[in-house]
Amino acid sequence: AQSVTQLGSHVSVSEGALVLLRCNYSSSVPPYLFWYVQYPNQGLQLLLKYTSAATLVKGINGFEAEFKKSETSFHLTKPSAHMSDAAEYFCAVSASNTGKLIFGQGTTLQVKP
Amino acid sequence: KAGVTQTPRYLIKTRGQQVTLSCSPISGHRSVSWYQQTPGQGLQFLFEYFSETQRNKGNFPGRFSGRQFSNSRSEMNVSTLELGDSALYLCASSLALGNSGRGETQYFGPGTRLLVL
């Protein structure tokens, strides 16, 4: 069965600092992995998606994630945080034989001025 | 191209009532999935519809149901509302090019926030 664990429900960084949001997955088949962002009172917006084409995936708004099979991780990073990055971030894995997404519990990113 | 739209955006109901939520997918998308988001349980999959048929179902009671129309628009219905049904209900659509939908990118709507009193 597939599952996702996001380490740290809250992460706080200063504006301009590195953003690192951690995601570990469990999958019985080669995974499809996603990062979504949710701003207050909005739906989920896709940041990036891993499909096995490349281990380093670049997404929107300067975010990227690296797939590490040996560590079963798919951490999300951004070199320099902006105030506008404050939001909740979700890592998700596609179920083994359906389109269902299995989400982590989410990480709230706070950006301090 | 317009995104996924959901109506209504906000809804207040009382226990025992029923509610119907609507979702219009991105044009050309054939699959619609529904998720429930609560602070305690996070994001949980309700069901997926493809070609007017429920293709997958999550672990929710039978009070939760849905359907899909020939134009891919979808509705979900919750009967006999309980306080615990208060949540943000998110609809997502995808192209559904493959047989199972596995790995397909899902695009989410803004959600319908349901409050049950």
Can you put this structure into words, describing what you see?
The complex is a heterodimer of chains A (113) and B (117). Chain A is mainly beta and 113 residues long. Chain A has no helices and eleven strands. Chain A is globular, with a radius of gyration of 13 Å. The mean pLDDT of chain A is 94. With 117 residues, chain B is mainly β. The model of chain B has no long low-confidence stretch (mean pLDDT 94). The chains are: A mainly beta (113), B mainly beta (117). Chains A and B meet through strand 5, strand 9 and strand 10 of A and strand 4, strand 5, strand 9 and strand 10 of B.
Number of helices of chain B: 0
The radius of gyration computed from the alpha-carbon positions of chain B, rounded to a whole number of angstroms, is 13 Å
Low-confidence stretches of chain B: none
Order of helices and strands of chain B: EEEEEEEEEEE
Strand elements of chain B, count: 11
| Coarse morphology of chain B | globular
β-strand percent of chain B reads over 45%
Largest beta-sheet characterization of chain A:
6 strands, mixed
Helix content of chain A: under 10%
- Show unreliable segments of chain A: none
**Structural class by SSE content of chain B:** mainly beta
| Rg over alpha carbons of chain A | 13 Å
